[in-house]
């Protein structure tokens, strides 16, 4: 993993027109190339707005007053357009219906690549590759609108992946998926890293995020409340609970054992860690 | 007593030739909470859409409160069975949240006094006081979804079908859904859930119907079903995280099902003494 900074956000404040308070307040964080960042927070905390700042949808399309600077791979993006950003930062929207526009699945995937001027041969190759990655092989000729919610979600991911952006942002990409589908998307996130890509995911799936993300950013009312490794963030249960948020179930369990029964097993954040932490040789 | 919902030998074939459910038999009685689980495309939603006549069986028969859904109009069935859609865009259509909340009661000609009472309760539970004049389409999808649930709460139908109620909801939203299900249950409604949310099912420990490849493959209580790892694998289901942990802790009571954080805390409470004598509990990582 390189040591290059992929995203540097400094003093970022954003306010929609005709509102009294900013939705993002003085945000700072740095993400290294190849890292996966998970953004968590309550509904309305500003997660999507923050993500949209990273590809310039905010403030160029969704307008308002933006202060502070965002650099992507060392370049200040304040003068860039959304189209300019498209080959660098891919964005998978929360509601796939808003993203899909073509008549067939393969045209859908080709659409974004076409805008980047990619050759026909390469397109064909990438369509097959990405369909396989998201488990939609054989769906080439289907209409995107005839797919189920979960399939649409995976198609939206495939069409962004095919553009091979350096940074991939996904806004609640698994909300409509079954457990297997969720795992598939998170596995895609892991693959992103092997391609040297950088990932940002917004989700409520704290359990999966604990094992797949390198960093977690907790947003509340437009402010960064915590930024650190999943271990650092999910160990702060009192703070999370104050914001009506939760940690992975195993972390919550360990916390209750400590508080209610004075049994200390540390703060495991994954099942594997918990199994180790809860190991008791024998019991009378 | 006759079951309130009776599904007998039902198959459904969509106009494009896809068979979505095959030979399903199911009876749901008064006051039950039933969760329909299964992977995407397993036939869950197709099955529950038969309960309010949105879909009619291709073969077989569905009766709801002794009415054959094939012979009744949807309007009549919808006073009995309320359906909260997975995608809130398919549900909300009026220009303000207030109108959305009153619409169902008005439509069913419920008295003004009663309507006021119910709408007020729904507004309180979902904290909609400040959003009454907002256009639902200006709100985010999880809020729109809550408006869908609040509207059904106001209608208060005998059977409430919630299709993926916790999808896209934050932690608080999920807790609210749990509260809503319990509340409907306490008031004697039948609640049917279509969901992937195993934590929600764990908390409810309700009856679970598992659909797989258009067929019903299991029908039992959650604690029984979740113990069957073979079955979960077949249906691509993942138990709640604490249960995955419990399955690997050999010292827990094998006859018990640990579906919730509470259930494991309880075990430690009862066995703490033994633990203290052993002093072998790990120090964590």
- The number of helical elements of chain B comes to 11
Major sheet strand order of chain B: 6-7-8-3-9-10
Our Rg estimate of chain B from Cα atoms comes to 21 Å
Number of DSSP strand runs of chain A: 10
- Per DSSP, the total helix count of chain A is 12
Q: The CATH topology of the largest domain in chain A, please?
A: Rossmann fold
The value of Rg of chain A in angstroms is 20 Å
Given the helix and strand composition of chain B, which structural class is it? alpha/beta
Percent of residues of chain B in helical segments?
25-40%
Largest interface (CB < 8 Å): A-B, 54 and 51 residues
Shape of chain A: globular
H/E series of chain A, N to C? EEEHHEEHEHHHEHEHEEHHHH
Strand count, sense and barrel status of the largest sheet of chain B are: 6 strands, mixed
> What is the domain total for the residues of chain B?
3
User: What is the straight-line distance between the termini of chain A?
Assistant: 48 Å
Query: Tally of extended strands of chain B?
Result: 10
Termini gap of chain B:
55 Å
Shape of chain B: globular
Written description of the protein model:
Chain B: This is ATP-binding cassette domain-containing protein. The complex is a heterodimer of chains A (284) and B (285). Chain A has 284 residues and is α/β, with parallel strands linked by helices. Chain A is built from twelve helices and ten strands. In chain A, the strands form two sheets. Chain A has a six-stranded mixed β-sheet with strand order 6-7-8-3-9-10, with helices on both faces. In chain A, strands 2-1-4-5 form a four-stranded antiparallel β-sheet, covered by helices on one side. Chain B has 285 residues and is α/β, with parallel strands linked by helices. Chain B folds into three domains: 1-80 and 158-238, P-loop containing nucleotide triphosphate hydrolases (Rossmann fold, 3-Layer(aba) Sandwich); 93-156, no CATH class; 240-276, no CATH class. Chain B contains eleven helices and ten strands. Chain B has helices spanning 44-48, 74-78, 97-107, 112-125, 141-155, 171-186, 198-204, 222-225, 229-234, 241-248, 261-278; strands at residues 5-13, 19-28, 33-37, 59-64, 67-68, 81-84, 159-163, 190-194, 207-212, 215-221. Chain B is globular. The relative contact order of chain B is 0.14. The mean pLDDT of chain B is 90. At the A-B interface, helix 6, helix 7, helix 11 and helix 12 of A face helix 5, helix 6, helix 10 and helix 11 of B.
């Amino acid at each position: 993993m390189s040591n290059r900074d992929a995203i540097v956000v400094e003093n970022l404040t954003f306010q929609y027109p005709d509102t009294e308070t900013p939705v993002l307040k003085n945000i700072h964080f740095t993400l290294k190339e190849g890292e996966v960042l998970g953004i968590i927070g309550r509904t309305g905390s500003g997660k999507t707005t923050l993500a949209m700042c990273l590809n310039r949808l905010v403030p160029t399309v969704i307008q308002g007053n933006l202060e502070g600077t965002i650099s992507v791979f060392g370049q200040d993006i304040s003068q860039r357009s959304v189209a300019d950003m498209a080959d660098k930062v891919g964005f998978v929207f929360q509601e796939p219906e808003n993203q899909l526009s073509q008549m067939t699945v393969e045209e859908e995937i080709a659409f974004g690549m076409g805008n980047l001027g990619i050759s026909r041969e390469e397109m064909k190759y990438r369509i097959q590759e990405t369909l396989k990655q998201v488990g939609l092989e054989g769906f080439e000729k289907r209409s995107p609108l005839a797919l189920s919610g979960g399939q649409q979600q995976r198609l939206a991911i495939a069409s962004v992946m095919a553009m091979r952006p350096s940074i991939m942002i996904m806004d609640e990409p698994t909300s409509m998926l079954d457990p297997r589908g969720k795992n598939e998307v998170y596995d895609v996130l892991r693959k992103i890293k092997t391609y040297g890509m950088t990932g940002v995911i917004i989700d409520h799936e704290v359990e999966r995020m604990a094992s797949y993300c390198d960093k977690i950013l907790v947003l509340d009312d437009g402010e960064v409340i915590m930024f650190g490794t999943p271990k650092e963030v999910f160990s702060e249960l009192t703070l999370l609970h104050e914001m009506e948020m939760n940690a992975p179930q195993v972390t919550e369990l360990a916390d209750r054992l400590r508080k209610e029964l004075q049994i200390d097993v540390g703060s495991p954040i994954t099942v594997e860690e918990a199994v180790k932490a809860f190991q008791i040789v024998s019991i009378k | 007593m006759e079951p309130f919902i009776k599904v007998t030998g039902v198959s459904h074939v969509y106009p494009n030739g896809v068979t979505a459910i095959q030979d399903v038999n199911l009876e749901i009685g008064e006051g039950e909470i039933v969760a329909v689980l299964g992977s995407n495309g397993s036939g869950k939603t197709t099955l529950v859409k038969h309960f309010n006549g949105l879909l009619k069986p291709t073969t077989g028969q569905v009766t709801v409160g002794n009415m054959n859904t094939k012979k009744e109009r949807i309007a009549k069935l919808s006073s009995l069975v309320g359906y909260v859609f997975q995608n809130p865009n398919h549900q909300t259509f009026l220009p303000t949240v207030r109108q959305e909340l009153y619409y169902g009661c008005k439509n069913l000609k419920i008295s003004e006094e009663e309507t006021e009472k119910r709408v007020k309760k729904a507004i309180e539970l979902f904290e909609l006081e400040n959003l009454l004049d907002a256009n639902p389409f200006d709100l985010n999808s999880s809020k729109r979804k809550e408006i869908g649930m609040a509207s059904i709460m106001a209608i208060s139908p005998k059977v409430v079908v919630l299709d993926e109620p916790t999808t896209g909801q934050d932690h608080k939203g999920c807790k609210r859904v749990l509260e809503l299900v319990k509340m409907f249950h306490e008031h004697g409604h039948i609640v049917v859930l279509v969901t992937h949310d195993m934590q929600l099912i764990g908390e409810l420990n309700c009856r679970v119907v598992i659909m797989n490849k258009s067929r019903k493959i299991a029908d039992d209580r959650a604690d029984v079903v979740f113990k069957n790892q073979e079955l979960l694998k077949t249906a691509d289901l993942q138990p709640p995280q604490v249960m995955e942990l419990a399955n690997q802790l050999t010292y827990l009571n094998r006859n018990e099902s640990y579906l919730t954080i509470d259930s494991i805390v309880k075990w430690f409470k009862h066995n703490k003494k033994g633990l203290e004598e052993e002093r072998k509990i790990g120090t964590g990582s």
